[in-house]
Design brief:
28% helix, alpha+beta, D-Amino Acid Oxidase, Chain A, domain 2, binds the ligand O=C(O)CCc1cccc(O)c1, Glutaredoxin, 8-stranded mixed beta sheet, 533 residues, 13 helices
Length: 533
């Protein structure tokens, strides 16, 4: 059972259904949500859309973006982070789109999937677990949970353990406002910032930074506006702003609201605020106040009830990672849950969901807060210093490479991650996807990837750098061929892994850099174990 039909809930439903699980999605509203929300995904997130079977459709409603620029108050760029058109996950490192288009696409795929039932206009009011109560009982209400931010609670590294360990046959009962009770073997709370499911399991959001009020303006403009193809952040403490061209003739601005300023005051100022970019006529699509929060839930699950997306974490938009975090949750959980519910895998497989996802989500939120502070913090004097300081720092090649590489997913040791101590070991990181669709060669399940060809060493273009970029290349003399150790081979066989001997130069180089001759890949393409050379 998925509660919430936003992109995270719909992608979770599609991923589960592809693994043979029947899913009901319950949604309070009817139809696609028209408010201004996510506009950006990175390459790892688009790879997840690929896993959900919607990447071709997504390509038709999105466009690759050039990157992120920082501008001063006079709109003069002083730093730029360029994004490649082919990242380590096989897709453009930065993609822009309009969320209602994405939701319409996902809904079309959901409607075509016989395993998924979408019920709209239904209100979940309560969840009864098989044992009678959750480990920390909460009341399911639609109160604005953000008000609870700042209350004392365990951090993302702490929190209560998942309560109980219901067997897959046990049933939760999801109670609707109508009195109807819907049985469910698991519940995925994808019901947003004011999550009813979060309240039901007694979890709370913990603030990582202050809320900020912004004013979001979406327009259509018949005359193309001049843009560099990426996102512009105006680092002006007096009126911080974001500007980007979405797709087609659609553009977005976000303006930070000053203390005491009202949405209607800002609405009246829109023409003068956007005239520096759009001097001619525009068609106004939306102009709304939006509060950005930075928070993470103290608990992410209880038994087989899980929190995903905004129900588990709220990310300020400054690095475009909010929706991607929700998709990562769905991808991390769906294959494990399907294995437990459908294929008889041990219940412990889902235990690592929070420990794998929470540190990553928290780091992203802190990164967004840092960029937000760079855009909006300080006085005029600080803003004047920011320009030479940031530009100078980014001239150091190692700093620039690090800033442009973004956050690399790297899970610690756990039930499904056999981390060794070698820093180069790719275990816990995603296997690169050399080109869109390559994951299909590995199948939907576990895979044992080995070297299938003599290596072709040589310089690689930037877009084929491995995800742990920055580590020195092991060099062409390090052989990655050889027999797969029997223990790894046995584990792979037990898991029904497909063996793939790759001849792809990107993957061969990645194996070589990690000093491994075989890797066991989880269905989400994270390296679970490796055989060192
Ligand atoms: O990091 C990038 O390349 C873009 C980040 C981004 C995307 C969308 C909105 C935003 O404020 C930042």
């Amino acid at each position: 059972m998925v509660v919430g039909a936003g992109p995270t809930g719909l992608v979770a439903a599609l991923l589960l259904a592809r693994r043979g699980v029947d899913v009901t999605v319950l949604e309070r509203r009817a139809g696609v949500h028209a408010l201004p929300r996510a506009v950006h995904l990175d390459d790892e997130s688009v790879r997840i859309l690929q896993a959900a079977g919607v990447s071709d459709g997504f390509a038709a409603i999105s466009r690759p973006a050039a990157g992120l620029r920082l501008l001063d108050a006079r709109l003069r760029p002083f730093a730029a982070f360029h994004r490649s058109s082919r990242g380590v996950h096989g897709w453009a490192e930065s993609t822009l789109f309009d969320q209602p288009d994405l939701e319409a696409l996902l809904r079309a795929h959901v409607a075509a999937d016989p395993r998924i039932t979408l019920r709209e206009g239904v209100d979940v009011v309560r969840i009864d677990p098989p044992g009678g109560s959750f480990s920390s009982v909460g009341t399911a209400t639609a109160e604005p949970d953000v008000a609870a931010i700042g209350s004392p609670s365990a951090g993302p590294g702490g929190g209560a353990a998942a309560g109980g360990d219901p067997s897959p046959g046990d049933s939760y009962r999801v109670r609707l406002a109508t009195g109807e009770q819907v049985p469910a073997s698991a519940v995925l709370g994808c019901d947003g910032a004011r999550s009813t499911v979060r309240a039901a399991i007694g979890a709370r959001l913990r603030a990582l930074g202050p809320s900020q009020r912004w004013f979001v303006v979406d327009v259509r403009c018949a005359t193309p506006l001049p843009t560099w193809g990426g996102v512009d952040q105006v680092c002006d403490p007096a009126r911080a702003a974001t500007f980007l061209a979405l797709t087609g003739d659609r553009y977005r601005w976000e303006f930070r609201m000053r203390s005491g300023e009202t949405a209607s005051e800002l609405a009246a100022q829109v023409p003068s605020l956007i005239t520096r970019w759009a001097p001619g006529p525009v068609e106004m699509l939306r102009a709304e106040e939006y509060t950005f929060d930075a928070a993470v839930a103290d608990r992410w699950s209880d038994g087989r009830v899980f929190l995903l997306g905004d129900a588990a974490h709220l990310t300020p938009p400054f690095i475009g990672q909010g929706l991607g975090a929700g998709l990562r949750d769905a991808h991390n959980l769906a294959w494990k849950l399907a294995a437990v519910l459908h294929d008889g895998a041990p219940g412990s497989w889902v235990d690592g969901y929070r420990s794998e996802r929470a540190p990553h989500a928290t780091t992203m939120i802190r990164g967004a807060l840092r960029v937000g502070r760079a855009m909006t913090g300080g006085s005029g004097a600080v803003a004047a210093l920011r320009r030479p300081l940031v530009a100078g720092t980014l001239r150091v090649p190692a700093v620039r490479r690090r800033a442009e590489a973004g956050l690399v997913t790297r899970f610690g040791p756990g039930t499904l991650v056999d981390r060794r101590r070698d820093r180069r070991d790719p275990v816990g990181t995603p296997c690169p996807q050399p080109w869109p669709g390559h994951d299909g060669l590995l199948g939907d399940g576990w895979a044992l990837l080995t070297s299938g060809a003599p290596e072709q060493p040589g310089p690689e273009p930037r877009e084929t750098m491995p995800p742990h970029a920055g580590l020195p290349d092991a060099g062409p003399s390090d052989a990655v061929q050889g027999p797969v150790p029997s223990e790894l081979a046995r584990r792979a066989a037990d898991l029904g892994a497909r063996t793939v001997a790759t001849t792809d130069p990107v993957l061969l180089r990645w194996l070589r850099t990690g000093r491994v001759r075989a890797v066991l890949l989880r269905p989400d393409r994270i390296v679970a174990a490796s055989a060192p050379v």
